[in-house]
Structure formats: structure tokens, C-alpha cells
Design goal:
This protein has an eight-stranded mixed sheet with strand order 1-5-6-11-10-9-7-8. It starts with 13 loop residues before the first helix and ends with a helix. Strand 15 and strand 16 form a beta hairpin. It is α+β, with helices and mostly antiparallel strands and 411 residues long. Helix 5 runs parallel beside helix 9. Bound molecules: adenosine-5'-triphosphate and magnesium ion.
Length: 411
């Protein structure tokens, strides 16, 4: 049997999982203050849910999806991202009655990519979606919530917010025509990838990491020269509000997102600390998504953050509550020790009882487990209804009646 985890997947040992949970807890608490509440959708959906929404030409649909047929010949896909599933649920659960709808989700996502630091085939995202309002202030609320999450995780300072508007459909159509015209003129100097994109997904060329492409893009037309009045107005509203809230950003006319469903404002918090995996939290507005899926036309905006990347950047440490160790002096008091631990735990106190070892081994273990006290149980003490308690930080030891033990340890 091959005992390695599948390429691009990883085990989360307890310490890593504790850090992951800490990041999720902080993010959940921050977005909760903005009124976003957690919901969950299934980890797999009919493949159509992703194919129709993300776009056949997107990296995800064209080469990254885990698609399979189940035993009933249904074509299913492990979710590569969270928004399409939320949009599907929005329609099938009739959530259009509940707009403005603010939801958060988190959990595993699956993409067949080349694994490297910060890039996995099973990874985790936490995201928010705000469905209903077309107002640019909805975008501002989402960006502000994202910024506050990064702030409370202590990583905002090492991240920069890039923002752009890719305009409404009309502005984008005119821009793409101009961009394609320019790029066709220099077509043979483009990277192979970009030459392919010129046919399928020209906007994505702006995203190219190839140096030659980037040099050619320096003289390309820019989207902001093509905004119509409506696109101009809604973007200006967002920029003005971010300034008023003192949320720092760089306007980046080359920023686009890889998925078909975006329009108007797009944004990405980037870090310099994870090499090529620089996107930490990315999102934008997707006004056509729900309609494309067959639901009632409903504007939306949201973002998703990669939890592995957040965990790697976040300097905070998960601090589990310190336990109490119960140490039986003698085999005859072992059962008492487990029983006492059971009672204290039922009152809310974390307790450790070891399964073997002499007194000094058990005491060492208690220190290693960061216990704040050790309750030593001998036959004589139990007879007297007492235990001898050693407070490990102070080193002092005293006798405490078993009936007083909980309140003595709690304080
Ligand atoms: P990248 O440019 O790194 O491929 P992306 O544009 O594909 O990112 P999105 O689809 O916007 O990313 O996903 C949102 C976030 O999820 C990213 O900002 C990133 O933090 C994280 N993410 C995306 N793909 C992966 C992956 N394969 N492994 C780990 N995290 C990922
Ligand atoms: Mg990607």
C-alpha cells in the first residue's frame, strides 16, 4: 500500500489544525461584525455548476477540476471554489427572498495544480458573499471586512490591496476589442500561453507573469480609458469610500480575475512573503452570475481567502486552555484519578491523566503538556477526602479538600 498522502494534499497535525481553527475563528468573528453568517454547501456539485459559471476558458475549468462520474453516471466535480455553490443554493433554496443576503463559508477546495509552497490540490478557503445590492458600498463593505480580517490576523501590514474595475459589459467589450487589436500587432512576441489566451480569454493576458508579455503590456491600452459613465461612477464611489476609511490601496489597471463571472470592481490583497503564491484574499463583483445560472437577476460581490496562506503569514499562536494533571501515586488510586478527572472535566476544567509511568515521569509529562497544576492522589489522601496539589508555575504545594478542588483550581 502507498502510505503517502496524495500529491498536493496534506495532513493537518493537531498543532497545524489548531492554527487553522484560530485563523477561521478570528475571520468568522470579524465578518460576523459586518453581518455575514456562516453557511455551508456540499463539497461536490454537478459539473455544470462550475463549467457554466467559471467559464470554459478559465484555468480552473480548462485544466484544474476534479471531475468524475458517480455510480449512477452523474458527472460531478469536487468544488474548486465557493461562489458557484453559494449561487446555486441561492437559487435552489429560494434565498432571493432574503436579500441583501450576507453569508460566509469555509472549507476544502480542490484544484489539479502543480503543488508548491502555498499551492495545493486540496486547500481551504474562507469567503464571504453579499447578494442583492448593486451599490458600490457593498463592494466597500466586503473589502473593509477583508482588510479587518487581515488586520486582526496581524498580516495587513505585509499585504497590499490592489484594486481595479473591469467595467460593465459594454465598457469591457470595447476594451477587449482594443486590447486584442493591439496584441494582434505583437502576437508573435507573446508567450505561448498568452497567444492561446488571445483567442480564448484575452483579458487574462494582463495577468501574465512572463517578462516579455509584461513589457509588451506597458504600451497596451488600459481599461480605465474605456469606462462608460455608469462604470466610472460606481468605481469612483468605491475609491472615495476606501480613502474615507483610510484603507490603503493601489489602483492597478492590469488587475483582472481569472473567472468569467466578474464585472466592475475586482480586488486582491497580495503579500511579498510567499513567492509566486502572492494572492492572499481575492474577490470582486459578479452581477451576471445568478442570472447566468437561471436565477432572478441579482447583483453580488464577495471574496475568498486561502486559509493555508493566511496561516503561514499569521504570527498569532493558538493557545489551548492549560490543563490540570491528575497523578495517581499508586496503581490502587488510578481509577480514582480517572474518576476525578471526569468530574472536573464535566465542570469545564481540562484534565490530563496519563496511562502509565512512575511519579517523576508523570510530573515531567505534566510540565511538558503545559499543565498549570498537578493533583497528586495517594491512598491516604483519598481516605481523608483530600488531594495534594502542586501549582507548577509557583512550585508551591498544598492540601486541598476534594470537595473544594474545582473552585481552587478554577481561580
Ligand atoms: P493564484 O493566482 O495563486 O492561483 P487564484 O487567482 O487562482 O490564485 P482564487 O481562485 O481567487 O485564486 O482563490 C482565492 C484564494 O484562494 C487565493 O487568493 C489564494 O489565497 C487561495 N488559493 C487559490 N488556489 C490555491 C491553491 N491551489 N492552494 C492554496 N491556496 C490557493
Ligand atoms: Mg489559480
Amino acid at each position: 500500500m502507498n502510505l503517502q498522502s496524495v500529491r498536493g494534499t496534506q495532513d493537518f497535525l493537531p498543532e497545524a489544525q489548531a492554527k487553522h481553527n484560530l485563523v477561521v475563528d478570528i475571520a468568522r468573528s470579524v465578518v460576523g461584525r459586518f453581518g455575514f453568517y456562516e453557511m455551508a454547501t456540499p463539497i461536490f456539485e454537478f459539473s455544470e455548476v462550475f463549467k457554466r459559471t467559471l467559464g470554459e476558458a478559465s484555468d480552473i475549468v480548462s485544466k484544474e477540476m476534479y471531475t468524475f462520474k458517480d455510480r449512477n453516471d452523474e458527472e460531478l466535480t469536487l468544488r474548486p471554489e465557493g461562489t458557484a455553490g453559494i449561487a446555486r443554493a441561492f437559487i435552489s433554496e429560494g434565498l432571493s427572498q432574503r436579500t441583501p443576503l450576507k453569508v460566509m463559508y469555509q472549507g476544502p477546495m480542490f484544484r489539479y495544480e502543480r503543488p508548491q509552497k502555498g499551492r495545493y490540490r486540496q486547500f481551504h478557503q474562507l469567503g464571504i458573499e453579499l447578494l442583492g445590492p448593486a451599490s458600490g458600498m457593498a463592494d466597500v463593505e466586503c473589502i473593509a471586512a477583508g482588510f479587518m480580517v487581515l488586520n486582526e490576523l496581524k498580516i495587513a501590514e505585509s499585504c497590499s490591496l490592489e484594486i481595479n474595475s473591469i467595467g460593465d459589459e459594454e465598457s469591457r467589450r470595447n476594451y477587449i476589442a482594443a486590447l486584442v487589436k493591439y496584441l494582434k500587432g505583437v502576437q508573435d512576441q507573446l508567450s505561448a500561453d498568452s497567444q492561446k489566451r488571445l483567442e480564448q480569454n484575452p483579458l487574462r493576458i494582463l495577468d501574465s507573469k512572463d517578462e516579455k508579455d509584461q513589457a509588451l503590456l506597458k504600451s497596451a491600452p488600459l481599461i480605465n480609458e474605456f469606462y462608460n459613465e455608469e462604470s466610472k461612477r460606481s468605481y469612483a464611489q468605491i475609491i472615495s469610500a476606501l480613502k474615507a476609511m483610510s484603507i490603503p490601496f493601489n489602483e492597478n489597471p492590469l488587475l483582472v480575475r481569472g473567472l468569467d463571472y466578474y464585472s466592475h470592481c475586482v480586488f486582491e490583497f497580495r503579500t511579498q512573503q510567499l513567492g509566486a503564491q502572492d494572492a492572499v484574499l481575492s474577490g470582486g463583483r459578479y452581477d451576471q452570475l445568478i442570472k447566468t445560472m437561471g436565477g432572478p437577476a441579482t447583483p453580488g460581490v464577495g471574496w475568498a481567502a486561502g486559509l493555508e496562506r493566511l496561516s503561514m503569514l499569521c504570527p498569532l499562536e493558538a493557545k489551548p486552555a492549560r490543563p490540570v494533571a491528575i497523578l495517581p501515586i499508586h496503581e490502587s488510586t488510578e481509577q480514582e484519578a480517572f474518576k476525578l478527572a471526569y468530574e472536573l472535566r464535566s465542570k469545564g476544567l481540562p484534565c490530563e491523566v496519563h496511562f502509565s509511568g512512575n511519579m517523576s515521569k508523570r510530573m515531567k509529562k505534566a510540565v511538558a503538556q503545559n499543565c498549570f497544576a498537578a493533583v497528586i492522589l495517594g491512598p491516604d489522601e483519598i481516605q481523608k477526602g483530600e488531594a495534594s496539589v502542586k501549582f507548577l508555575d509557583q512550585g508551591e504545594q498544598k492540601s486541598i479538600r476534594l470537595t473544594d478542588l474545582f473552585s481552587a483550581l478554577r481561580s
